[in-house]
Design a protein that fits this description.
D-Maltodextrin-Binding Protein, domain 2, 12 strands, Arc Repressor Mutant, subunit A, 3 domains, about 300 residues
Length: about 300
């Protein structure tokens, strides 16, 4: 059945590992960490793989390299195969597995870290690692199996990825009370794109108008940074209701915006079903994680 694969030399785990590392690093130089001996080794190993499969696996891109379409497919197959071997080894050695979870910085801080640090998580017999990533990166890395789970803002991802609803949330416009603008004037200034605004990049992809075309006076990575900037300055910001200051805030004021206040957004847990076939224990971790996050969002 596999006789042709072993009819000639050039295919090995070490060579496939080199392809994965070069693909992840974006260049042979970065993968080798500047070591000329390792650079030569990586170049030789990938050339041997190309000779074996008789196809180009990497190509130049600017100062670096990227995998070709065939290179990406071989990397996907290799990663799937090696993850299976790694899971088998951990099972034989009775070792715990670390599950990698990608999410926005705000979701990690507000929901994920509290869920993972509770006593039920420690009793679950697994360890976890969180990574800040946007929806597009999470989707790509779930396909690549370099993330085990991800939290995204949309239900439909490219096949075969699957999702489960965790909860819903809304956006609210907040501004410092010291600006001395009345609510109606502040709302009008926002609609006319004149209100000084700090925009979090976590708004990207939500289709929020007029924020989508708003020339913000400050752009930051996440909602947590936007909240910090607003509390220390004289700018307004759109914030999710789960981190909004609340009516009791002494320094910040919520500005009602019917068009935005009526929109409801969602968070979904996402995973690749191939992961469950590679590691049946992952299904239990997925179910525990989904339940814990649903509870946190509902609370």
């Amino acid at each position: 059945m596999f006789s042709r694969l072993f009819a000639e030399s050039g295919l090995s785990l070490d060579r496939l590992k080199a392809l994965l590392e070069v693909g992840a690093a974006g260049s042979i130089v970065r993968a080798a960490d500047g070591d000329p001996v390792r650079q030569s080794q990586y170049s030789r190993q990938i050339k041997e793989l190309e000779d074996f499969f008789r196809t180009r696996l990497i190509e130049r891109q600017g100062k670096g390299t990227r995998l070709t379409s065939n290179g990406r497919e071989l990397a996907r197959i290799s990663r799937f195969f090696m993850l299976g071997l790694s899971n088998f080894q951990r099972g034989c050695l009775a070792e715990e597995q670390t599950f990698r979870i990608g999410a926005s910085a705000t979701f990690i801080r507000q929901f994920l870290l509290p869920a993972l640090s509770c006593s039920s998580s420690r009793k679950a017999g697994a360890t976890y690692a969180t990574e800040v990533a946007n929806d597009e990166e999470i989707e790509r890395r779930l396909h690549d199996l370099t993330l085990d789970f991800g939290v995204v803002k949309r239900a439909k991802l490219s096949r075969p990825l699957q999702t489960r609803l965790l909860g819903e949330w809304e956006l609210e416009l907040w501004m410092p009370k010291g600006s001395r603008l009345r609510e109606s004037k502040a709302a009008l200034a926002f609609e006319q794109r004149r209100l000084p605004l700090v925009r979090a990049r976590e708004l990207d992809g939500l289709g929020v108008l007029p924020a989508a075309g708003y020339e913000a006076c400050l752009v930051c990575d996440n909602f947590l940074e936007a909240l910090a900037a607003m509390e220390g300055g004289e700018v307004a910001s759109l914030l999710p209701n789960f981190i909004a200051p609340g009516k009791a805030s002494r320094s910040l004021l919520r500005i009602p915006l019917p068009k935005i206040d009526s929109e409801v957004y969602h968070f979904y847990l996402a995973w690749n079903p191939r992961l469950l076939r590679l590691n049946p224990h992952a299904a239990r971790r997925r179910d525990w994680l989904a339940g814990a996050l649903v509870q946190r969002m509902a609370g």
